[in-house]
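Justification of resources, computational component.

The compute hours requested in this renewal are based largely on the per-chain cost of generating structure records like the one below. Each record pairs the submitted sequence with a full structure-token output. That output is archived, and it is also reused by downstream analysis tasks.
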Amino acid sequence: MKNKKRLFLIWVISILVTAIHVHDNPEHVDLVKNIFKNKKQTTKTETIQADVIKDIEANAFNISFKEVLRFDNAYKSAFITYDKFKDEFDKTKLKVYFQDGQTLKNFVYTDLSIRKYITTDFNGGLKNIFIYKNNLFAFLTSLKGECYYASIIYLKDKNEIFKTKCLSGEIDFNGVGSTSIHYQDKILLSIGTPEWNNNLIANLAQDPNSFFGKIIEIKKKDLDKIISNEMTKINPTIFSSGHRNPQGLTILKKQIFSVEHGPKVEMN
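The structure output for this chain reads:
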């Protein structure tokens, strides 16, 4: 009887300890879920919605668009490429990249095989794809041990060619944003500050020793050396600082514009 009571007490204590740990460390639950997700078959048929017209009301305007694909993938889309532009749009030429590292083309899912880097913890995952000389590079959020950071992966050989320093505290990888443009002999890539209400991370935007909250310059000649296997790492420089959550980057009349989310302000 004493042994049963002792086992019951141990069981109750283990449940309490697990509940407290999960509450304080929700990302560990995501890690376990990711392990099971990775074991699932990633190739499946996509549900297609063709010629469905929808009207969306935005803040100051209305817009109508045609829905051509509906995804059954649980993760958000991060980037889309289109093989060839023709007079008639061909949805089978679309290639969609998802936050969890899967892609969809011709209605079939495949995997980018970057599981040893990518993490979807804290709303993270694949954030951007940029292309140079038909070579693809992925900007994503990563995890190694207990270190969360952002990195760039050369997708041909799955080599990590760049990574930021580790983050700690309250992280929100929604805020890391990211977009890129070709600018002269460089590629400009924006990296936000992945915080929601964390002043330490927010202050990294003004820290010259951090790549968070910056638009960085990547030299194309460095990418040439990556492609030819002359280099394994790139050394970006800072183009501009003080960015929070960049969502768009473009060039108009030789001027560079970055569009991003500002902080939420409570109005009285």
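Residues 22-27, 35-45 have pLDDT under 50 and may be disordered. The two ends are 63 Å apart (CA to CA).
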